[in-house]
Every structure is written in structure tokens, then in C-alpha cells.
Design brief:
single chain, six-stranded mixed β-sheet, alpha/beta, Purple Acid Phosphatase, chain A, domain 2
């Protein structure tokens, strides 16, 4: 794959302007850019933290400000995925699909944003994030409550030729809607943890673990990190490209399991998506770093130098995982 240029502030604002002119019909027609291409079953796309929704004036539960660049920024990266010579057969979305408080209309916008992927035959599988509400999500993404591996949670398993991907549900729904403070809880719960332990223990092929939140504080036992059937743990939530390690015990068979954070698909902080290509021996995650901004870019404001440095630090980095057991 040829190295693609980073989305500059000028290009980014151009995408936003184009969306404003075209309206919500900006999504590609059925079949999309990938209609004439063969999907790659050995590749998996990773996106996270879309955070799309209505303008501030139309929100039932008010956020702090408008985000006029969304969903155009996310739609631009969806088109980028579709423009690949062989787009991935699967795209995994690691939560925070809603702008902030899980409003029904948020998921209408998200469904329109992701529709070109599904129209192209790509299977999109979502995890729940702390800004999501399951019942509202189901109105535009039906079936998760019936297909889940753990009742009351949306837990999915995605099978590919060389590895399986478990999407855990770390959402603890807020008791108060419209409060950022109420959206801070996380957890897997006893039933999901028991299911996870049994699933990993019985696994016979590489099994990646994925969730919205980083692993810390979720109660995942060290025995799972120690099990070499698990090549890695991938998450969203931080809006940043990150790499780290999860320690699996201290004995002679101890290991360090790689943990990777996927950035936002267009909201704020690191912007981009990951493309994992798998083989029988392992996998490589390519970091498609496309932008960085915080706070939001303003039309007449000078772009801070550090934004471009953040992009440069991650653009086209590759992170490896071994399938050797």
C-alpha cells in the first residue's frame, strides 16, 4: 500500500466544507468505492470513537459545544478504507459511536456514516463505549441483543482465516442521562468475565481481545494475558495511538501481552484508523495516522506545530503480533 499523505488542516476543512454543501447524502452509493474490488478476508480494519450526532441546538441532552467537522471527517476516512485496492472484509468499531449521551439521532448519523462500508460488503462489528446506550444503538444497529455471547451485554466474536477477534462489552450505562460525570464507569461484570475465561481456555486458534476501554481496571485475570493463544489486546477510549504491555504473571512462563490503543475516527486528538493484516504466523497493524487536533481547528487560526509532530510520530508505524503458541 502506498503511503498516503496526512490530512492537513486545509484538506480537513475542505472535507468539512464539501459535506456541508452536499448534506447528509455524502455517503457513497450502494456498492461504494469497493464494489469492483475483492475484499481481503485476511485483513481487519480498526476504527473507534466516532462520536457523531446532531448540532448543539438540536440535542436533547446538551453537549459542551458544536463539532461542525463531524461526521464529514469520519466519512472521509470511511472513503479511504473503501479506496484500498483490497479493503478489509471486516471492520471492528471499538465503541463511543454516539456523540456523548447515546441519543437516538446519534446512531442515525452513525449508521449513515458507516453505511458505505456495509454497502460494499464489509462486515462492521461494534463494541459498546461509555458514551453509548444499548437500547438506542439497537434502533439503527439491530441484532446485537440476539447474537450476543453474554446476555445483557453486546459481546461478539469475529472469525477470520487466521485469527478470531473477541469484542467485549465494557459499558456500564449511566444512571443519569446528559451528564459527562455519569459516563465514566466501566466494567465487564462477573458473567462476562466467566465467559471470557472459558472462551480463552477453550480456544485453539489465535484470539485477539478487543474492547472500548483499556484493560486496566476491567478485572481481566493475569492467566488470560499469560495464555499465548491471545496475541494482543486492542481498545479505543483514549482517542490516541498508544502501545503498552499487559503483564501475565511473574513465573518462568510469564509473558508480556501487547496492548494497542486505536485513535478516534475524526472527533478530536489523534485521528485515524488501523489496518491489520494477518498470516498463519502473525499479524501486523498499520497505523493510518491522518490528523491530530485539540482543541478543534478554527478557519483562521494558525495550526500548532505540535499537531503535525503528533501525526508524524505515528504515521505508517507498524505493530507486530506473533501467533506462535
Amino acid at each position: 500500500m502506498n503511503k498516503q499523505e496526512t490530512m492537513t488542516r486545509r484538506g480537513f476543512l475542505g472535507v468539512t466544507a464539501a459535506f456541508a454543501a452536499a448534506g447528509a447524502g455524502c455517503a457513497t452509493a450502494k456498492g461504494g468505492a469497493a464494489s469492483a474490488r475483492t475484499l481481503d478476508p485476511e485483513a481487519v480494519g480498526f476504527i473507534s470513537d466516532i462520536h457523531v450526532g446532531l448540532p448543539l441546538a438540536r440535542q436533547k441532552y446538551k453537549t459542551m459545544r458544536d463539532y461542525p467537522h463531524q461526521p464529514a471527517a469520519s466519512q472521509a476516512l470511511v472513503r479511504e478504507i473503501l479506496a484500498l485496492p483490497r479493503p478489509p472484509a471486516n471492520v471492528l468499531c471499538l465503541g463511543d459511536i454516539s456523540l456523548a449521551f447515546g441519543e437516538t439521532e446519534d446512531y442515525a448519523v452513525a449508521a449513515e456514516t458507516l453505511k458505505p462500508l456495509m454497502d460494499a460488503g464489509i462486515k462492521v462489528t461494534c463494541a459498546m463505549g461509555n458514551h453509548d446506550i444499548r437500547a438506542e444503538f439497537l434502533k439503527y444497529f439491530p441484532g446485537y441483543d440476539r447474537a450476543t455471547k453474554v446476555p445483557g451485554r453486546f459481546v461478539s466474536v469475529v472469525n477470520t482465516p487466521h485469527a478470531d477477534f473477541v469484542l467485549l462489552d465494557s459499558l456500564v450505562e449511566p444512571t443519569v442521562r446528559g451528564s459527562y460525570g455519569a459516563c465514566t464507569k466501566k466494567g465487564l461484570g462477573k458473567e462476562q468475565l466467566e465467559w471470557l475465561k472459558e472462551t480463552v481456555a477453550a480456544a485453539t486458534r489465535p484470539t485477539f481481545l478487543c474492547a472500548h476501554h483499556p484493560a486496566g481496571g476491567l478485572g481481566i485475570p493475569m492467566s488470560i494475558y499469560k495464555n499465548r493463544i491471545v496475541p494482543g489486546y486492542l481498545h479505543g477510549h483514549t482517542h490516541q495511538w498508544t502501545t503498552g504491555y499487559l503483564r501475565g504473571d511473574f513465573d518462568d512462563n510469564a509473558r508480556m501481552l501487547r496492548e494497542v490503543g486505536i485513535p478516534t475516527l475524526g472527533f478530536e486528538w489523534d485521528v485515524g484508523w488501523g489496518l491489520m493484516r494477518t498470516t498463519a504466523k502473525g499479524a501486523t497493524l498499520h497505523c493510518n495516522a491522518r490528523d491530530h487536533y485539540y482543541p478543534l481547528p478554527l478557519p483562521k487560526a494558525k495550526r500548532p506545530v505540535e499537531w503535525d509532530l503528533h501525526v508524524r510520530d505515528w504515521a505508517d508505524r507498524e505493530i507486530g503480533f506473533s501467533f506462535e503458541v
